[in-house]
């Protein structure tokens, strides 16, 4: 999260910094991005950025928090209505793929094409606490096979990995959305119910 000084910035300066960072992250992955380049893009000094952010990861997560807040707002996930966790990831998949042929396409392509375990954890970790703390808002969370926070994180990683693979495939190939939508739904169904046909599942127990 950004440092307290960031909250006191004018909206114009915040926008300049965020747009400068998006420009850099659209060209280079988080691991290879340069805080000097972000400063140059935003017309501020490197020292100024460190006054508002701890490091480049902090800048990246500030962007991701804005993205996730927009996602939650667009799909009404901030309300008290119950939502299925698999549905959340399907909606997120639809949200991310909607950036194709927009000014955000380069950022999304770069981020998902170099999605390391570290980056997955950075993005997923903040929502673990939300899911655990808001069980009444998440349908069927108690049906998931996990006994600890770490095991829940494993499930979310698997779901996020499906999003990553599907988004990469969609952005790198000239295919209709209906094709990747079908592939994603099938992958989601396999994660939800397993790869064993229903009539044979009891034999596997």
Q: Can you give keywords for this protein?
A:
11 helices; 2 strands; mainly alpha
Largest sheet: 2 strands, parallel
Judged by helices, strands and strand pairing, the structural class is mainly alpha
**Oligomerization state:** single chain
Could you tell me the mean pLDDT?
87
Strand order of the main beta sheet, please? 1-2
Helix content: 55-70%
What is the strand content?
A: under 5%
Report on the structure:
The structure is a single chain. The chain has 205 residues and is an all-alpha fold. 67% of the residues lie in helices and 2% in strands. The chain contains 11 helices and 2 strands, in the order αααααβαααβααα. It has a two-stranded parallel ribbon. The radius of gyration is 19 Å and the shape is globular. The protein starts with a helix and ends with a helix. The model has no long low-confidence stretch (mean pLDDT 87).
């Amino acid at each position: 999260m950004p440092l307290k000084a960031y909250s006191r910035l004018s909206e114009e300066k915040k926008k300049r910094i965020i747009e400068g960072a998006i420009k850099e992250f659209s060209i280079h992955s988080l691991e290879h991005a340069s805080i000097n380049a972000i400063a140059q893009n935003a017309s501020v000094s490197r020292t100024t950025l460190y006054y508002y952010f701890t490091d480049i990861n902090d800048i990246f997560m500030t962007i991701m928090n804005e993205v996730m807040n927009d996602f939650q707002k667009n799909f009404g996930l901030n309300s008290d209505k119950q939502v299925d966790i698999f549905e959340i990831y399907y909606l997120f998949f639809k949200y991310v793929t909607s950036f194709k042929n927009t000014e955000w396409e380069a950022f999304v392509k770069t981020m998902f094409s170099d999605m390391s375990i570290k980056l997955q954890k950075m993005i997923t970790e903040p929502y673990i606490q939300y899911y655990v703390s808001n069980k009444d808002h998440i349908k069927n969370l108690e049906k998931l096979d996990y006994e600890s926070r770490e095991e829940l994180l494993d499930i979310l990683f698997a779901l996020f990995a499906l999003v990553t693979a599907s988004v990469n495939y969609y952005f790198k190939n000239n295919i209709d959305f209906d094709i990747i939508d079908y592939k994603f739904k099938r992958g989601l169904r396999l994660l939800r119910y397993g790869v064993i046909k229903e009539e044979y599942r009891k034999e596997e127990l």
